[in-house]
Specification:
- The chain is an alpha/beta fold.
- Helices cover 40% and strands 22% of the residues.
- The chain has one domain: Ribosomal Protein L15, Chain: K, domain 2, CATH 3.100.10.
- The longest helix is centred in the first third of the chain and has 17 residues.
- The radius of gyration is 14 Å and the shape is globular.
- 26% of the residues are buried.
- The model has no long low-confidence stretch (mean pLDDT 92).
């Protein structure tokens, strides 16, 4: 059986705990789902390129990436991207076409029910 390794970054641990608390308060399954995805081993965490976000999203949609957004590819429509991390270039590309880069912690405040958010991995 594999050795269980606990996360050591206190900010990350707090984020996962906050997601679970938000699920308990709001009853929105999306927060529990995101917490579970973030608890995976770091090497199994999502890394999504802009090309994939472009393919699977529509104009003005909110897309949540439980991991990191990378800059490969082109984004041709305005989209709100929520993620754990963004590469600098990905952030520049998203904002240059009028999109938004939002942290997972901030989206919980903006949209506590988690409605109309698509999760991509």
């Amino acid at each position: 059986m594999g050795k269980r390794i606990n996360k050591t970054n206190p900010n990350f641990v707090e984020l996962v705990r906050t997601l679970k608390d938000k699920y308990a308060i709001e009853g929105s399954a999306i927060w529990k789902d995101v917490a579970k995805r973030l608890e995976r081993a770091t090497r199994r965490r999502a890394e999504v390129n802009l090309s994939k976000i472009n393919r699977f999203s529509t104009d003005d949609e909110t897309v949540l990436i439980p991991g990191k957004v990378l800059a490969s590819g082109i984004l041709d429509h305005k989209v709100k991207v929520v993620a754990l991390n963004f590469s600098e270039t990905a952030k520049e590309k998203i904002e240059s076409i009028g999109g938004e880069c939002i942290s997972i912690r901030d989206i919980m405040e903006i949209n506590p029910k988690g409605s109309n958010i698509r999760i991509l991995e």
